[in-house]
User: Fold this.
Amino acid sequence: MEASGANRRVTATRREVETVTPLELFFDLVFVLALTQCTALMAADPTWQGLARGLLVLGALWWSWVGYAWLTSVVDPEEGTTRIAIFAAMAVLLVAALAVPDAFGDDALVFALAYGGFRVGQIALFVLASRDEPELRASVLGLALSTAIGVGPLVVASFTDGFLQVAIWLVALTLDMGGPLVIRTDGWQLMPSHFAERHGLIVIIALGESIVAIGLGAGSLLGPGAVAAAGLGIVVSAALWWLYFDVVAIVAEHKLVRAAKGSEQNEMARDSYSYLHFPMIAGIVLVALGLKKTLEHVGDPLTAETGTALLGGTAVYLVAHVAFRLRNIGTLNPQRLVCAALLVGLIPAATRIPALAALGLLATVLVVLIAYEAIRFSEARDRVRHELARDHATESA
Assistant:
């Protein structure tokens, strides 16, 4: 009888407000550590293999966070036993985050088991929340199957090493992230404004990692070069923030809110946020790695790997924005695509000039891009930032 009552409390505790709750922000603090650990993993081994491993771990952590973003868009995380379950999930995620630096070594099994436990917790809460809703339950059971297919190989990979281990990770992550593409989408539920805000906040958290990387790279001795690099690093981080939040985030949320509930809205949320936000986050983490290495050796050229992380990571971020707009509006953003191509083209130069100069090039390109868009599209920008935002606020009220 007590278990049944607990289930009723969980299933009855549906989210009623669009605003992100304090517990969700608290939950994300563990993800902050996970991002920092991913950067540390790549910084400790700044080779192509090290970067690949860091991105694979980041992909797994991202996909686990995405699952809880969908969950808390259905269930209120601060009510009933769900609050305790979220605290427990945080503890399990913390263990996974602590294991990240050696996730391909001695702590591989610890990471796999903690990661699996974190994912199982999400599925269990979803099962309880969908008890009286057959369509949602069907989608949850499909997700449970794809999760098992994706998590299982990571346990197997923990008993291997080298290329085979990386290959198993890649297969596992592909199968796991590909699951929602074959699961029926009409059964999912979400609060669109909450969902968009949740992802906007995780972008801020990732940008915070770039700030942390500046501090870690600078160390205790601040010479003129380090001070200049720190200033340019802030310019780059602020530019990445501007490119997302000035217009893009507003338009995307508006489109998601206006989409027809059911398959159309759910598939837009899946594609635009669950999938296309991953390269944005990955790009920011790569930039953080590049910033850290720049601050450590401002007068030396970046290596091919760290130069690619700094400029190529920004290019990935911009291409994700282009795909984001194409998915939501159906049009290309040519200036960001050209800027991404330019940054890729500048990577060889970044490995031949001082790291500080390479960072200066990046900051200049981003500032010029922002200035061009602000001037060229000033009227449309003003309409989006004021009229569109005001209309949305009125509708939400």
Observations:
- The chain has a mean pLDDT of 89.
- The chain has two domains: 1-189, 191-397.
- The chain is about 80% helix and 0% strand.
